[in-house]
Each structure stands twice: as structure tokens, then as C-alpha cells.
């Protein structure tokens, strides 16, 4: 259950730390005091959408956190364990900045808003002010009946199976209708792949062919020039070696004081002669190794021409042909198995259809069995709410075509007056009657909820007098087995609560703030008196409030 709620700079609240307990907690205050702020802060911690208007005026961000005791909530603990989060605590935190952005944490670890929402579904169930309007929608009727029947997991599985079934049906239809196109594509791919198979271009072959073609095409010229270069160096009459030898012989016998310098020059000429001799030997070896092979050149050029021709045909670069070959081969293999895939897909569609039908049959039987029990339970609550003459029924009818949620349509029917046939809620119930019917349905739904924390946001609108006292008793009874928080304007409801949280708005200079506090017994009497008699409290009003509180607590004790 919810044990702590901390609010910082949210709406018109600057700082608020609330300690909450089990049982029924009434939340009251004057209109506009900010009762919805409490539920708004809780809603943001549970993953509701945020906006910049959530931040208190003049502040940079709103910081909200809610702590839950999950010792008795195995589904919430399992959710945390699956995500490797601590399970000895459950702290949800949400920060909303003035520019409308928000961040979320679960037990100190960063989380998404979707994570908050998913975990929150295991922690709190909120029955809001719009419950009356939702009850006029038949999809709400189906969901409530499924919750009452314990069908939630089965319906989820049913929907997943239905979606897989429909997806397989669409694939089968598409594959069947595109048969001619597939056959034409298969024939084209066979020709293209066979052509590339014959080409059999290796991954690095193109670069090797281009290099070899360049060498072969210039082999004759290269051989001729290498031989000429060797002749330039080694010619007996005017080759480089001959000239170097002549220069050395002329300098070597010279005497004189500059002999040291001449010796260095002679040494350099000797080194040059050695280098030239080595170059000549290498040129001869190169010329001997160079072969003229016109047949090989013709083959290489033919091979390159074929590669470029096929590349142009497929509108790709020559080096992209190996990758294209693999791609076309894979597509062809997929289409070659088309006939087998078609049969497999037909089998898959039939299997999913049969699975969905069996699940739908089981869920349908459960709905039929639960409908009577649900109607009877709501009927009992209506009698408790002074609508004993009304007749409430849950009609379960078979759909004409399968749907994700099954083959049943569920409608809540009501006959407010004896002798009148039950009709849909929207066509029969008045505003006050709809409020009581809505409350009766929500109480029945809450009694079968696995979530211990229930929030009722002004679900008692349109109710007054003795009926209001009965509503309070119903909510108190729910709170005895868990935690119920209810926002109310009715003193008869607030008097039944185990705890009473009062909200008031205070104006300080240019700032308006909301304060919230749990009331002691004297505070509760004063607040009930205000709810009974307005601003000016008489002794009689205070006495009435005291009597109402005492009677409620004594009645609860019995």
C-alpha cells in the first residue's frame, strides 16, 4: 500500500510530506483548495502524462515521490525482480521541469514513464470522476466483467493469439494473391543468378585482373625501355660505367696539396660505379623475367569486358557484383521455398485459429458464469444504496465475427422501476441514479481487485442524505481489507473514514499555497462541521458533527 507521498513545488504546493496508513482515508477541503493536487501528484508517480503547468510558478521543477509497502504484493515484487531492481523497497520518483520535460526513477534507478505506468498497475487502482461516463461505454462493461471473473491474463493471451492469427492470415493472403508475380520474379532471378554463377567473380579478383592487364598491356614497352636503360649504363664506348672509369683514371694519378679532397671524390666515383653496376644487373634480371604473353592479355581483357558488361546490366559498379550475387541468391532461395512456405503458413494459420477458438471458448464460458454473479453482487449493493427496486443485469451476447477480446459482447442493463424491461444504462438512468449505479459497480469491482490500494475521486457526486452515509460505510468496509483513499464533499462519507486528510488553500502576499494535514479528533469535528454548515459554525453544527463522527466510529466498531 501507499505509505509516503512527498511533493515539492507542484501546482500550488511548495513542500508536503505525507505519511499514509491502511484503512479508509477521507480527503476533504473547500472547492478549489487543491484536493486534485494530491491525486495529480500520485498520478504522475504512476506514469501519467506531465506538462510544464505542473511546476509551481517561479520554480525550475516539480519533484514527486511515492513509497509503497509491497511485502504482500507478489506481482509487484516479481516485476521488480525481472528487471533486477531491489524488492525490499518500492520508491517511485518523477521530476518535471519548467519546460515540460520529465525524468523518472524506480528505487533510485532511471526508468521510463512506461515503466512507472506498468509497475503502477500492480500498486494502485484509481476510480476517477469520469467513471460515470466510462460506464456508458460497452468496452468498459467487458473489462469490468473480465476483472470480476479473473480473466485478465487469459484475455491478454487471447488478444496476443488473435493478433498473431490475423498477421499470419494477412501474410497468407498476400503470398497467395502475388503468385503470378512471384513466379515471374523467380524466373528472372534464376537467369540472373545462373549468369553470375557462370561469371564466378571472386571477391578480390577484379583488382587482380586490372593489375595484371596493366602489366601485360605494357610488357613490350617495359622490356624495350629496360634494355635501353641497361645499354645506357653498360655501353663499351659511351656508357655510364665507361665514363665513370675514365673519370676515375684521370683523377687517380694527380699529385698536389689537394690530394685529400681528390681522394674523397675518387671514393664517391667508386661508390657510384658500384651502384650503377648493381642497377645494370637488376635491369638485366628484370628484362629476363618479363614475358610477352598476348594470349593471356587477350583473355584478361575479355574477362574484364564480361565483368563490366554484367555490372552495367545490373546498374552496379563492377566491384559490387559479388555482393549482388549473394543478395540475388538469397532472394531466389526464399522464393524457391515459396510452395513449402505457403503450406507451412496455411498450417500456422489453422493452428493459431484453433488455439484462439479454444481460448475464446474458455473465456466465454467464464464470462457466462461470472455474469450472473456480477449482476447479483451489484444488485445487492444497489439495494444497500436505496435502489432495491431496480433490477441490474449483465447481458452476454455472441458477436458476429471474432475479435481480439473474444466472441462476446457485454452490456450492463438496468431497470430503475418495477415492470420496466432492463435497458442500457445510457438510456435509463438519471444523473443521481447513474451515480449510485456507478458506485455499486465500482465497489463490486474493487472487492475483487488484487490491488490493495484503491483511490476514489469524488465517486459520490450526486448522492446525499442517508444514501451518502451508506456510501461511506461501503468505502470503510473496503478499507478494512486494504487501503482506500476517497476525495469527497460529503460529511456522511468523511465521518466513516479511519483517517481524515484536510486540504486548505492559503494566500501569503503574492503567493497562494496549499497545505495538507491529517486531522486529529478535534480537527475532524471542525472539518465535518464546516462541511455541514459552511464558514460560520454554530454550536449546533459542531454538536451535529461530533454526533456524526461518534455514531460512525461506534457503528463501525459493531
UniProtKB/TrEMBL annotation:
Belongs to the RecN family. May be involved in recombinational repair of damaged DNA. InterPro entries: DNA_recomb/repair_RecN, P-loop_NTPase, RecF/RecN/SMC_N. It comes from the Bacteria. Transmembrane segments: none annotated. This is DNA repair protein RecN. Keywords: ATP-binding, Coiled coil, DNA damage, DNA repair, Nucleotide-binding. The gene is recN. The keyword Magnesium does not apply.
